[in-house]
Design brief:
homohexamer, about 290 residues, alpha/beta, Carbamate kinase, eight-stranded mixed beta sheet, four-stranded mixed beta barrel, 14 strands, globular
């Protein structure tokens, strides 16, 4: 932890300044997609975990959804598994799905749960399979076959709310059981999209997507061109103008999906900054780009 | 509120540093005797109220006991009521008791409750009469008659715990109904001592007495001689050596009473410093003098 | 207590006769404005307290709202405070409000709570400030400035119901926190009107206003001209005919406000008669004037 | 109902006098054996039912145990069934047991339940069979075979308490399932003794046995020789002196059994007097004979 | 119990086959009218009781309603009571009603409760009188006076659900208190019809009527002509064609009443076959005739 | 599923025979170590899952603990990881632990949860890390270093009981967080021993260890020499006589540990037989070897 040189009274003053933010979010639900650099860099990892527990301690209902791309990548390589790509997306065959499930549910999920427990929080690592948390069907964008990739049909909100009521932080791997012809078969779900769907059924106050970029830049080459806040209705224009670029597109779509589903505010934040989540929730300026309903 | 110049990330870092203290005290009970200058100076008042609500927001069970000496003094003067003193203590006749009750339960208690409510907390202003919270008998030190001054025989812990469980901050006036020959008669209770008794029945983590002095000074003329921490067993020696002086004596006795009754730690802090309570709970150095069991 | 000479069997018969009344009101809410002579005369006071506890013992949910006019009067005089009158109503400046708050919340409220506790009941003395029970705004009849006089905007019914569920008798001082430009400022509320508003939000079975008159007399000079019962729709005519006279007017208005807000029956009773409340609830004839919806 | 001529205010005064008695017994359990003339005379029946509901209304937990001797008698005669007597006690063969069960559980129990329901109370008619309320074994006094007569081994207190908590008045037929070699066979239990056993497991405040006599008379021929109260320790002497006579003996034994089992007070009262139960509970003099622990 | 010769593994396989049926009915309500031969033949009786407990053990909410025709018949004869018939139905005068009540509530009800308790279940024997379970009025088909015969106006569903929630099997005698001019008077209710009404208010999954016939036969002389399933809409035609004959008519009417009231499926089954209820619930073929909504 | 040819009535009879077993185990806890062939053979897998759900459906509280040796083996091989052996036990270095965690928590655990969900049960897949379910320390038999192998110090019984109360089947991977110098580090726990420890803290009725052998054979070459039941006290002799051989030794030790910790009965059963668990619980003969306290 970085040492900030302040008198104890000034420290107390800083804490006292946080009160209105705590009051605003207490008993509210915040769904955080945890991913990118913040899941790799050891210092950032420690900071995120402490932030999450702090939010939980001040009475915010936090749900954590995680991805695990790089670790899946690494394992596939270690196993000598060659990847096939469809429209630039990796095709998920059965062997790949096995690896996805092992890495997400067995490695990443338990590592996060272990860190939260170790830091004094109470975390429950779950997948969308457990207790039937998710129901999913195959995801076939424009009819394209991506293999065992799914999209969520239903989330069991009552189950998550019961966990949150008991003071637990749910840590969720985006793997789901299929229905219909895929009944009983695990499907691979995009983590941002799982977070958005959860935020919808919980009528969350905030959806926070941690990324490795600053947010939406008006000019991708100019770091000073960050768009701090836009309305839901302005999104279409930004897309047309090519400002929401390729990597950012699905994240923005998750935000609009959440907004349309009843979430109050959505945020694309820069997980490379220490305590990005705390800064977002506990300062007026926030961080990254916020998309809100009009 | 004083403005501390810090980047948002540094602010977040300061908050993150508070986590272990929040975790240590969460779900624990802290009884605070609120009095002295911190109840008169408008800035200090505002700071104390915010501190109290912050503690409550992070899950600490706070009970506030208040005095009201100066305001009682003022009203007696306004009514032209002359005071009689016994051994240097004001004799509480029926008229005086009426004023005590009006000022404590009607003025000070409601003012504090109003401030907490206004700042977004949830406070319930009570006296020891309400719901039979206290039972008291006459207090006659060395057989001396002080009039309608009482000492507490019993506190209804279940009642306070029910309030705390429901998220309320109890704000308590130290007035109690007498028993036996004083049955049904309101008695005037010393606020420090009421706080200590409440701390005992609630098995509080901390008893905090706010005063207008730095704490116990080894040399009363040397502000650098503050005793930061002493053991319960060292108190007797300090008394013999004349270090615990007249005004401090009853406060120290309240602390030892609380320690003997199962309270973990007791504190005599300097309420003239802003955010004294936060500094005490949320920094390692603390503030004022701490008395603990050996 | 008056001794009624009856055999034990006849006493039992009288009790048995009360059964249908008890059954009718059990689990129902009755809001009583306690005031006037019944709050001054020592015998009447004792009788009212016993009646209240009896109602509570047989399962009626009793809420007590009290005034305190004469005691406020006395204190203002003792403090040499001169009163200014607007349209015959006392203007409530800050000093006066201080006295109102002290007398109502500190003196009268605690005296009633003490008496109920002493007689074996369980009372909680509250003001509209505590727990945010009331929200109020300035009351400016016809735009006239009366100073810190308020009218209730909202009552926290859930809070009162939780107290009633736990078997407590709430004793309420009509002082409230203002909102908007008066945010955080205590306002003085008329007790009859506070009782009526509480009765509305609790959907009370009865609103009972204790007065120092027999009820509404058709001919104010003829004590035999008491109107025992009238319909809501007849009130306008009585006003036009000058039968509802000046002092009675606001009380009748409180009754019609309560009826319009869902209260079943409203009563203006003569608090100078011993056990007036019991007679009203537990006999067919009742007492005073009843106003009911058509 | 008898009409008592009293002003409404005097009626209210009588009610107010009942308050301390109500307070004394509120939330306490009273077990009443209902039998004899009070179960036959139509006026007494109506009065008992009203008394029972009144007790329940004021928060007393009432359990009613009934007998049914005369009606069993009548049915056996109607069926031409001849009785065999052993030591003066009727031998209960299978046919007799059938009649006992039908009359107690089918006739008397439902008649009492119907009357309580009709008068606005809430009664549940049960036997010791239902829910396994009683467990019993054969009763063989001095090894004598009485047929299907049982004595209680166990009572399910939790079951009764759940009913009482929900505001129901349990009305209980003293029929039980046997255990061991009589497993699954209904046995006939003495009603006084069932009431005493229930009072024990519920740690009742009072056991009240309604009889057709005044109570224990020191001289059976002198109605003025009623013993109003005796201690548990005096019972043996009264037996030796022949004052506790034959019919009274088992009732007194039930009382001492209950006292030894933790019941506070036991009463043998004269059910021929109207409102005998109310008089017993709600006056200082009480009625009949009280036997208490020393 | 009949011994089926099977290896333990095959036994286990049979149990495992029952799983989908258990899953289908778990937490669902099944109302069973228990009557006819299955209530007389000792082997069938034992089998029914075991079936009922098994259903309860696997989480099905079972309500049992019983009749008692033959036993009432027998007692009337034993008492030399002559019966009067109206349109082929027995007229229920007061003496007959007394016998009905005694036999149903006192004999049959307690015998069933005793058997269930003895076999390890938990049964509560009730009548429609207890706790005000039923409200009824006189039943006068085509204005004909049948004496104290009633039809149900209301069933207290909350009461039954509370019993079912606590794991109890309610065993219900079809006797009810009248209302209006029959207030407080027990009325005799047809058991099939009581079962149908209960099934309606509980929104039962199934209503099962146990009879002494195979079900509805297309040709009453041909046991191979059993109608296994018909729709609600086909019933009228069957009646017109004379296929639903006299004895079957009221049973079919109970089924259609239940279907119209929200019950999912209704069954007229042959109680003369061992384990008829289990076969109905736990096999695909079922047993008897099922009537369902279209 | 195998088809057993039986009439529906005979099927019902078989079900009815299961009643006493269901009654005996209802609301009791059974901890099952699921492993070996029954986790590999597809038919056996399906049968085990159905058995588990059936047990849960009839009210038995089932906890499932699984291993995953062969799949861990396979993955290590696929990754080209060479194993080091200490005293015949595989040394668990960090890379191996990673694989253990991925396979157990990510692959096997979720596969079992998916199958239970798919078959209509409700399963929650957990590791000992989640919610701090297990606390463990390094396991060093005779001081030997086995790397990241742990033994359980504590199990959170309240957490498991809360899950069981809500009708969930906990499926548990034997991975735990270390304490002390291994704080925050995942440790590999033997599955049999985890099952035994869980059975102890839950005071389970049964501990069932599924193996690939018949049970304990008196003569390992003679399949007819199965020991069906032995007492705790006989175990020592069997060990001395060399009858409890190497592979069986740790399983027997788990059983005795469980017995000493308050478990009623322990079983080593042959998971290669279909429905082995059902046969064990629902027949008198049981299956495999039972070890019980004397």
């Amino acid at each position: 932890m970085k040492e900030i040189l302040l008198s104890n009274t000034d420290r107390a003053e800083v804490l006292a300044h946080a009160l209105p933010y705590i009051q605003r979010f207490q008993s509210k639900t915040v769904v955080i997609k945890y991913g990118g650099n913040a899941m790799i860099n050891e210092d950032l990892k420690a900071a995120v975990i402490r932030d999450i527990i702090l939010l939980s301690c001040v009475g915010i209902r936090v749900v954590l959804v995680h991805g695990g791309g790089p670790e899946i990548e690494g394992m596939l390589r270690a196993l000598g598994k060659e990847s096939r790509f469809v429209r630039g997306l990796r095709y998920t065959d059965e062997d790949t799905m096995d690896v996805v499930q092992m890495i997400l549910c067995g490695k990443v999920n338990k590592d996060i749960a272990a860190r939260i427990q170790q830091a004094g929080g109470r975390a429950l690592g779950l997948s969308g399979i457990d207790g039937g948390l998710f129901q999913a069907r195959r995801f076939r964008p424009d009819g394209e076959d991506l293999g065992l990739v799914g999209e969520i049909e239903a989330v069991d909100a009552a189950f998550l709310n019961a966990l949150l009521d008991s003071g637990v932080i749910p840590v969720i791997s985006p793997v789901a059981l299929g229905t219909g012809e895929d009944a009983g078969r695990p499907l691979n779900i995009n983590a941002d999209s799982a977070a958005a769907q959860i935020a919808c059924v919980l009528k969350a106050e905030k959806l926070v997507l941690m990324t490795d970029v600053q947010g939406i830049l008006r000019d991708i080459k100019d770091p000073n061109s960050l768009i701090k806040a836009i309305n839901r209705s302005e999104v279409a224009a930004l897309k047309q103008d090519g400002i929401v670029t390729k990597g950012m597109l699905p994240k923005v779509d998750c935000c609009t999906l959440a907004l349309d589903g009843g979430v109050s505010r959505t945020h694309i934040i820069d997980g490379r900054l220490p305590h990005a989540v705390l800064v977002e929730l506990f300062t007026d300026e926030g961080i990254g780009t916020m998309i809100v309903n009009d």
